[in-house]
Write a structure and sequence with these properties.
5-stranded mixed beta sheet, Purple Acid Phosphatase, chain A, domain 2, globular, single chain, 6-stranded mixed beta sheet, 15 strands, alpha/beta, 238 residues, 7 helices
Amino acid sequence: MLTRIAHIADTHLDEELPAKIGIKTRTHLKAVLNAIKKENISKIICTGDIGKGNGIAYFFEQLNPFSLSITLGNHDTFSQISKHYTNGIHAKSQKLYSSIEKDTLKYIFLDSSAGSIDKQQLHWLQKELISSKPILIFIHHPVIGLRLKVDEIGKLKNRDALLRLLENCNNDITLFCGHYHMESEITHKNIKQYITPAVSFQIKKLHDKIELNTTFFGYRIIEIENDTISSNVRFLTN
């Protein structure tokens, strides 16, 4: 049986920077959701940086027709998002993370909103990685580093600790993330990492500076058949 999922990231709804550079974030989100509907996909996973203010309620209103899972990004706050989304709540640590096993895969959703993975979550993850199935991880921050300026300034603070946990897992791990506003695919040992382009705006792959690209935006389609995972990116233009 074929399962198709749309992965979106970095909508940044109603935030100051996208507006300043002429990005209509709500228009971008609507265009992406319309494209996903045309693909006959009902499941969406968003890996964070949803937006602020009224943009948060708008996001959940627009995603209401879909089956939605989310992870939190560094622009998101637990107090705001948990008013609309309650799956995986850890009230004491104010984090959202969870796991679920399907027929052939285990899905894990991590919370890197603090710019790191806290000790409690790492301890939980270590136990969750014990599985007989291939593992699919969704997280806002990339875990495998890139030799780019955006990675230098925006990387997950304790990603080495997280990477060691994943490397020591006996399973194949496929990881989907956002945060860097670009498309990327990289493999490290047992881990294949996909960065999905932003719904808002992109960041160019440069080694020495940060430069934005506002000419296109996108999302990713993930296809799962038995335990085989494939994906491809869809781009839309302004």
